[in-house]
Amino acid sequence: MRMVRFIREGGKAMYLPDFNYYCPHSVQEACAILADLGAGAKVLAGGTDLLIKMKHELVVPKALVSLKNIRSLADIGYVEGKGLILGARCTHNDLVNSTLLHQRYLSVAEAAHQMANNQIRNIGTVGGNLVNAVPSADLPPILIALGAQVTLVGPGGERTLPLEQFFTGPGQTVIAHDEILTEVVIPDQSTTGSTYIKFGLRRSGALAVVGVAAAVTVVERVIREARIVLGAVAPTPIRAREAEERLVGNAVSTELLEEAGIRAATACKPISDIRASAEYRRDLVRVLTKRSLRRAIEQGHV
Ligand SMILES: Cc1cc2nc3c(=O)[nH]c(=O)nc-3n(C[C@H](O)[C@H](O)[C@H](O)COP(=O)(O)OP(=O)(O)OC[C@H]3O[C@@H](n4cnc5c(N)ncnc54)[C@H](O)[C@@H]3O)c2cc1C
Questions:
Q1: Which domains occur in the chain, in start order?
Q2: How far apart are CA 134 and CA 140, in angstroms?
């Protein structure tokens, strides 16, 4: 009975449409296949977004190019002078369990831990979360707050850009159809604290109604640098720049954090949908900005 409901959801068969499957062993080989097959081919990582869209026939690729045999994309490492490197094929649970992240950017491991459920965290990847570009995705806000850069490799070579410039709209990014996102780099920085707070309608397995990330540099109670990134309240993750400007150069106080929250709420452009009204989201931004700033400030480390 359950099986029948599953394959007949909404009166439509839920089988995957036919496709060709490629499993290259290097990024160069994968890019060559993508270039050769044209826009009808798609990259497959964990498949937690793509396969669902295919079942619903929202996308019908003629071919899938899997990254599963490209082992170099699954590493987490640190390179002196460059920063902490997250391979695009790292799963969310790889982030949750990474000693390097625990030592340097616990906030990223915590953001990954707030995602989905254990099964999805075991197969969903960093690259998939970014390229899918859903406005409520959990990794972009904290990675942008930490100044992360992404590397895209295509048949013509490699380019690196700030993650902040990667998203262009819901489900839209600057990546070309024959490019692969290979890694995310969190550069070395003076940040003294960072955090991501997600508000979902359930404690687990829920998408963010609002997500707020903050990264700060605080010296002797004065805020030297601040980055605040809001998720799920605009077509892409956005920086709350006016709130950041209000903070920099000022001593930490409750009033200052409250003002930053109000400025962030003014800056966001939420919509009303099934999960929350625009008004409710805006008020959440005010409260969560204040809260995430306070947590980041109190950490005294990243
Ligand atoms: C039940 C459920 C709960 C979820 N909960 C959350 C949640 O709480 N928070 C959240 O943020 N997300 C959530 N998601 C969404 C999803 O799990 C994540 O976005 C995940 O990180 C996607 O990664 P993937 O490897 O499965 O991507 P895939 O489905 O394999 O790919 C997604 C897209 O990215 C492209 N792509 C993947 N990797 C690359 C690459 N390296 N280079 C170029 N293109 C690439 C694919 O072609 C495809 O277009 C949930 C999904 C499900 C099914």
A1: 2-66 (3.30.43.10), 73-186 (3.30.465.10), 193-299 (3.30.390.50)
A2: 10
